[in-house]
Every structure is written in structure tokens, then in C-alpha cells.
Amino acid sequence: MDLESKLLAIVKDGAELEDTYVWSKLIDVDHNMVVGTMNSLIGDGYLLSTAKSEEFWVLTEEAEGYVTNGSPELQLFRAIPVDGADETGLVAALGEALVKVGLGKCMKSKWISRDKASGRYFRSVESVERDDLVEQLLSIKNGALEDSGLIKDLKKRQLIAQMFVLLSHAAAQRHTLSSRLTPHLLSPKLQNLRKRTSYKVTAGPKWAPVRAVLSSELTKEMLDSGEWATATFRKYNFEAAGREPGGGHLHALMRVRAEFRQILLEMGFNEMPTNRWVESSFWNFDALFQPQSHPARDAHDTFFLTTPSRTVSIPEDLLSRVQAMHEGGGGGSLGYRYSWKRGEGEKNLLRTHTTAVSARMLYALANAPGGFKPAKLFSIDRVFRNEALDATHLAEFHQVEGVVADVGLTLGDLVGVITEFFRRIGITDLRFKPAYNPYTEPSMEVFGYHPDLKKWTEIGNSGIFRPEMLLPLGLPPDVRVIAWGLSLERPTMIKYRCKNIRELFGHKSKLEMTRSAPIARF
Ligand code: FB9
């Protein structure tokens, strides 16, 4: 009898199927298969169902390890040779965490003792008969009653399976496990509570012992043979879920981008529109008070475009204020005192930093209807630099940039927001070193101590945008803007222990870079 017929038979004459999950265990069929068949029959009116959710326990990876290798206390007992062992030796053999847990339990169970003179541990018993922890873990893993060999036939199995569901409920209430083991077992490190949905099933309005063959489409053959006249057609099920799209993984860089984006969103930052790789020199440099003679504006450092070579859409009033600031200063600044050239500002390039986008956003903030309002903005996107390539540098990289604009911000706010951002990616030991950027004063390079690499590494740059940049954009003079930046490639290479950036990015990147789990945290 196939699964459909079994389901139809079990609800015959007003009978009820109490729980599809328990039933699936009894007939040894995957519950998802039962639910799929049930839904299909519901779709054609043969069955009705009501959903219910159950909680149950599953073992964590750590607990599975104990089931395989024995509890920490048993592993520690086995690791003590006849002539004893000191704690250092045990830690070297088993690791600090396991010795820390196992030692206390071994002493409490009087399986071992400690020689006060030498400080060494010795076995106090010949052997250990029961490994309580593993027995309890197995009772959770396999369903306690099933494991006791009490089951004689399917009927009892159903009753016991339902009792097990109740038991795991009770375990969830922490009533069924012996108090001696509760601290050990109930630590979240060993078991996780899961939730599953199962169904109570009854006969539907169109119930029949066997499902009528419904035609799902009108075919040429049906028309030719006249079968169409007597065929029963399946009704459209507009509630049917669409087919799950295929699997696939994000590229490593895109995984890290998603993580950083999530962190910044959770910190209250909004994403800037960065879909403009071709930028004018005006927004990429001039609006940032970067002088037209600056070496970074040379073709040796920047990719200039020949087609289209020029931008002509720079707002005239803004252009005039920027030109005036470069040439004669303002707001207390002397400016650069050179003759600023419009043509230089109109040259198109591939943006060298996302700070060009930040400048555009600050201009929009200054000119927003109703006037300036504080903002926390971020961007993560590609930038391009005409630089020498090496194992860790390509002619492009993804820049991550955070910007906070508000009245009265200080360097302390900048240190604070950077500290919080890096804390969220696991770097808590930071140092700030004075640095120079054309558009920020003061500026700071950020260094972080990497806990796994056990070394200090440069992790970013930061600063307070200069008034010579902010005033021409139209921001009120009491508004301060703090900002910081880093790349996506460096943290990704660290996270995936990638030595050469070409493994990560470009036509030679390795497929395993899209592996589902990183080798390490950052
Ligand atoms: O990302 C960088 N390093 C880094 C970042 C994170 C990280 O992972 C953490 C361990 C978990 C590890 C390393 N750097 C910036 C520092 C260096 O890698 C540096 O050699 C390369 N830098 C790039 C630019 O080099 C041409 C990284 C890139 C960079 C540098 C500066 C900014 C953005 C990206 C900036 C900025 C800025 C400053 C003020 C105002 C606004 C933006």
C-alpha cells in the first residue's frame, strides 16, 4: 500500500491521525515525505489537518564528541597512566577546557586522587563501569524509552514515541533528568532545543479510500480520444509554494560584505548609493579639498577615462565655493593659494575611494529640504587605484567606509564608533596612530591586535573631515563629520587564511572560496 492510501486508510470512518511525526516514526518514513503527501491530498480535498509544534532536544557537536570519545571525566581518567600524571601533562594531552571540566568530576566521583607532595594525579579505581554523562546524552539522542529495549511491537512504539515527545517536553521543563547530572547536561553547550511542526489529520470533504486520478492538463490525446468528456481535472492550487530556488554560496568577499553590512545596519547606519564607479575628479578629489597638484591625482595612481573623458554636470554654485576654498581658503583656512582649473575637476576617472560618495551624500544632507539633519551613513563597494600589483594588492579593492555627521562630534566619538565596529568583528585591542589624509584633520591609522594571528596589524584609517571640505558643501559650521575606512579584502583574506589575493578575487579565484564555512573567524 503506498503512502497516499495509508494516509487515507488511517482516517477512515471518522478516525484521526493524532500526530504525523509520531506516525512517520512508526512507519519509518521521513516526516517531510508524509507532510508532502498530506498537503497534496489536502489540496484535492481528501484530508484536513491542524498544525502543532513540538519542542525536542538535539545534541551539540561537543556532546556528540563526548558520545564518541567518552565524557571529559572518563577521557581524563583514561589519560592517567599507572605512574600518575601532572596537570600540565593532562592539559597537553586533552586540552585545557576538557581537563578543567573532567578533573573536578573525576575527583568528585573518587575515580582519581591527588598526591599532595608531588601534585600528581593517580587512579583510585581499577576501571570505570558507567559513564553517566554519555548514558544521559544517549537517552536524549536516541529517545530514552526506545533505547531501553522495552518496545515489543509498533503499538507500544507509538505509545512510547508519544511518551518520548512528552519526556522531551518534561526535559525541557528540566524535571526528568537527575539533579546530579543537570549542571553537566543542561548546559546549552551540550544540547539545543529545536522546534518541529507536526499535524493532526482527519478526512476531508472529498475523502475516498483511493485518490481519483485527476488530469492536470487538457492534452491533444484527450481531445482526439474523447476522454476529455469524462476526465476529472485537478483544480488550480494557487496556495502552492513555488519551487525552492537552487542552493549556491556567496563568494567569500560577498559573505564578509554581508556580515559588515549587517553590523553597520545594526549600529544604526544607512547604506549610501555607491553604484557610480565612474566619478569626476571634482567629487573624487576637489570636493574633498585635495589639491589639483596632489600626486594621487596623477595617472600613475588613478585610472582616468578617455570616453567619456569629462563630466559637465557639476553644480555651478558648489563648483564656485570649492574653487574659492582651494584658491583663497575661507572659514579661517588659507586654502592652497593656487589657480584652480575647472577642466582638471571635470576629468572622469574610476573612483579611487568611496569617500567621493560620502562627499556627494554630505552635499545632499546640507541641501536637504528642511535643512541639515544628523546622519550615520556607510558604503561598501569597489574602488580603483593604478598601483603596483602584488600578492595582497590588486588594482581594485572593496572599501568599507562609515560616516557620522552631527553637531559637536569629537575625536572621542570617532574612537568610540571605530572601537564598536571592530568589537563586533572580534577585534577588541585597538591602537590609534596619528596619520595624514588630505581631507581629514586630525587623521588616525587604526591598528588591531589579532587574537589568532597574535600580532598587531593595520586595520583601517580614519579622521575628521576638514572644514575646507565641509563648508563649500554647505554644511552648517557647527556640524562635524567623523569617518573611518578599511578594505574588505584584508579581513576576508585573514578569515579564510588566503595568502594570495588572486585566490580570492579575479579569474583565478578558487572555487572553495565560496565554501560554506570559513576556516576561522576574522
Ligand atoms: O583594511 C585594512 N586592513 C585590515 C582591515 C580589517 C582587517 O580584519 C580585521 C582583523 C579583523 C585586517 C586588516 N587596511 C586598509 C589597512 C591595510 O590593509 C592597508 O595596507 C590597505 N588599506 C587599503 C588602502 O590601501 C591602498 C586598507 C584599505 C583602506 C585604507 C584606508 C581607507 C579605506 C581602505 C580609508 C579611509 C578613510 C579615512 C578617513 C575618512 C574616510 C575614509
Read across the widest sheet, the strand sequence of neighbours is 5-8-9-13-12-11-10
Which residue ranges are poorly predicted, with pLDDT under 50 across at least 5 consecutive positions? 144-185
CATH homologous superfamily assignment of the largest domain: Bira Bifunctional Protein, Domain 2
CATH architecture label name of the largest domain: 2-Layer Sandwich
CATH level 1 class label of the largest domain = Alpha Beta
What ligand molecules are bound, each kind once? ligand FB9
**Biggest sheet overview:** 7 strands, mixed
Beta strand count: 13
Structural class by sheet pairing and helices: alpha+beta
**Global geometry:** flat
Helical segment tally?
21
In what range is the share of β-strand residues?
15-25%
**Helix coverage percent:** 25-40%
Rounded radius of gyration (Å) = 34 Å
**Overall number of structural domains:** 3
Mean pLDDT: 87
Brief overview:
It is built from 21 helices and 13 strands. With 522 residues, the chain is of the alpha+beta class. The longest helix is centred in the first third of the chain and has 19 residues, at 154-172.
Q: Tags for this entry?
A:
522 residues, alpha+beta, Ribosomal Protein S8, Chain: A, domain 1, BirA Bifunctional Protein, domain 2, 3 domains, two-stranded antiparallel sheet, 13 strands, 37% helix, flat, binds ligand FB9
